[in-house]
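sry for the spam today, last one i promise. C-alpha cells for design, 270 residues
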C-alpha cells in the first residue's frame, strides 16, 4: 500500500471521523501494574485507540501480547502504533518488534528513541538505517516511522535534522509529528505538514505554553490547532491522532479526560 492509497479529507470542518487515541505513557505508573484495568479506563473516557511505548511493550512475551490484544478487542479499542528504540530497526531485534506489533494489531513501528548526532553525517546515516529497516518492515505489511523530538528542529550545520531525515528516507517512511515539541522550538507545524504531503500519518496532540511547558492541556497552549488539523487532513494524510499529556498539574487520568473534552469542543466549533 502506498501513501497515495490513503484517502485524505479535504477540509478541517468535514473531517471529524479521524480517531483519537492515547499514548498510554501518560498513564504509565498505573498501566505497568494493571494493563487490562487501565485500558478499560481509557475506553471509558472515549478514546478509540492506544499507542504503547518502549521499553514497556517490547518486554512482553508472545502470550502476554495475546492477552493484551484480547483486552483491546473486548473493549473495542485498537492499537494503532508503538514507540520503539533502535533495536526494533536492527536485524537482531526487528523480528520481535514485528511479531509483537502484528499480535496486538499495530500497523506502525514508530521510532521514538535514538542517538543525537553532532553533525549531519550522523543523521544521514540514521536515515540509511531506517531505509534498510523500512524495506523489511514493509514486507511484513507494517509501516516504519519517526517521532520527532526537539532535537530534530534545532539548526545543525545550517540545516535541521528533520529536513535531512525525511529528505533521505523513502516516502513510505512516515512522520509522527509531535506538535508540542515542534511549537516549543519555534518551528512551524503547518508549513512542515504541507512540505511533506502524505507522510504525516499521525500526530501527537501535545500542546505547549511558556511557563507551563508540556503540562498545559490540549487546546490551551500555543499550537494553532485549527490550521494544523486542516493541513494534516488535506495534505498530510492523517489517519489517526494520539493524545499525549507528557506531564500534568493534576492526576494524569483527569488530565487526559479534559484533553479529549477540549478536542471534542474544538471540533464542534469548526
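last one done:
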Amino acid at each position: 500500500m502506498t501513501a497515495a492509497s490513503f484517502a485524505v479529507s479535504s477540509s478541517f470542518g468535514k473531517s471529524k471521523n479521524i480517531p483519537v487515541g492515547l499514548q498510554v505513557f501518560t498513564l504509565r505508573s498505573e498501566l505497568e501494574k494493571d494493563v487490562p484495568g487501565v485500558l478499560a479506563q481509557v475506553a471509558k473516557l472515549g478514546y478509540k485507540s492506544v499507542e504503547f511505548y518502549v521499553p514497556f511493550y517490547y518486554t512482553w512475551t508472545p502470550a502476554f501480547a495475546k492477552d493484551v490484544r484480547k483486552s483491546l478487542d473486548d473493549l473495542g479499542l485498537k492499537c494503532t502504533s508503538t514507540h520503539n528504540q533502535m533495536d526494533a530497526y536492527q536485524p537482531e531485534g526487528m523480528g520481535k518488534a514485528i511479531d509483537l506489533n502484528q499480535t496486538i494489531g499495530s500497523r506502525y513501528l514508530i521510532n521514538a528513541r535514538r542517538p543525537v548526532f553532532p553533525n549531519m553525517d550522523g543523521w544521514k546515516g540514521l536515515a540509511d538505517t531506517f531505509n534498510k529497516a523500512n524495506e523489511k518492515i514493509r514486507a511484513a505489511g507494517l509501516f516504519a516511522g519517526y517521532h520527532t523530538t526537539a532535537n530534530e528542529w534545532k539548526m545543525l550545520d545550517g540545516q535541521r535534522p528533520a529536513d535531512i531525515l525525511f529528505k533521505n528516507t523513502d516516502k513510505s517512511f512516515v512522520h509522527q509529528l509531535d506538535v508540542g515539541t515542534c511549537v516549543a522550538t519555534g518551528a512551524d507545524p503547518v508549513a512542515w505538514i504541507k512540505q511533506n504531503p502524505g507522510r504525516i500519518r499521525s500526530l501527537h496532540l501535545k500542546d505547549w505554553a511558556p511557563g507551563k511547558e508540556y503540562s498545559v492541556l490540549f487546546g490551551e497552549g500555543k499550537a494553532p490547532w485549527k490550521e494544523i488539523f486542516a493541513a494534516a487532513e488535506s495534505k498530510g494524510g492523517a489517519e489517526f491522532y494520539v493524545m499525549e499529556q507528557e506531564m500534568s498539574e493534576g492526576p494524569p487520568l483527569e488530565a487526559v479526560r479534559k484533553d479529549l473534552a477540549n478536542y471534542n469542543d474544538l471540533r464542534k466549533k469548526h
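The chain has ten helices and eight strands. ok im logging off now
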